[in-house]
Design goal:
GO terms for molecular function: nucleic acid binding; zinc ion binding. Keywords: Coiled coil, Metal-binding, Zinc, Zinc-finger. InterPro entries: JJJ1_plant, Matrin/U1-like-C_Znf_C2H2, Znf_C2H2_jaz, Znf_C2H2_sf, Znf_C2H2_type, ZUO1-like_ZHD. It comes from Dunaliella tertiolecta. The chain is built from 9 helices and 2 strands, in the order H-H-H-H-H-E-E-H-H-H-H. The protein is mostly helical and 254 residues long. A hairpin with a 4-residue loop joins strand 1 and strand 2. The longest helix is centred in the middle third of the chain and has 37 residues.
Length: 254
Amino acid sequence: MSATAAGSDDDDVSGSSRLPRFGCSQSSAAEVHAFYSEWSHFCTAKSFGWADQYNLASAPNRQVRRKMEDENRKARRAARREYNDAIRDLTGFVKKRDKRVAKFAAEEAARRAEKAAIEEQKRQAEKAERAARAAAYEEADWIKASEEVLEEESEEQEQEEVEIFFCVACDKRFKSEKQLKNHETSKKHAEMVAHLRAVLQAEEGCCPDDMLQGYNLPPEQGAASTDQQGRGARGKKAKNKRRQQQQQQQRQQQ
């Protein structure tokens, strides 16, 4: 053992006069917590010189002396670590069996439960208050008026969206599809379609059948009317009729 080790046996822990005391059964929770917090992280100030394995004075040369110093430092660190662990383990052992710690833990749990109950009660009260305000809520007059205007506009729009039945050849409007079909089977309608066929044929030299679909006109009747009425048609009127015919076809396709 080295010469310096003899004097280090009396070394005490660092700041021992400032370390918190264990206290008694009347100690406060803060005092008990401070005691266990300090000793649970205890670190000694002893040099542990007695743990040296070699006497440096016996070293034959400088290199051997350095090797001895390294081994002694390792031995001191190991002894210091073992000592600190023993103190910390003892602190934990005592803390588990300290009735004051158990009492303070129970009181803290009770305080937390009470706080949680108060917060839950507060949330329930706020929820009930919001429900009461929602039940007593009345819309402002301007909101009600806006809703009525929107309803009226919606009804008007629905009325405007009623389907229109129109005969382009005769330039007539009907209230229902049945009336339109009855009209298409009439003699007057057939004459107007035949006239339109004649105009188209006189204008372009042909009359596509798909342009006259939906008029229930036999092909023979249309052909017979072509020679009688096609010569005196005007080009401008034929174009207008043709445009109306195309619009009617687009409506039927939609």
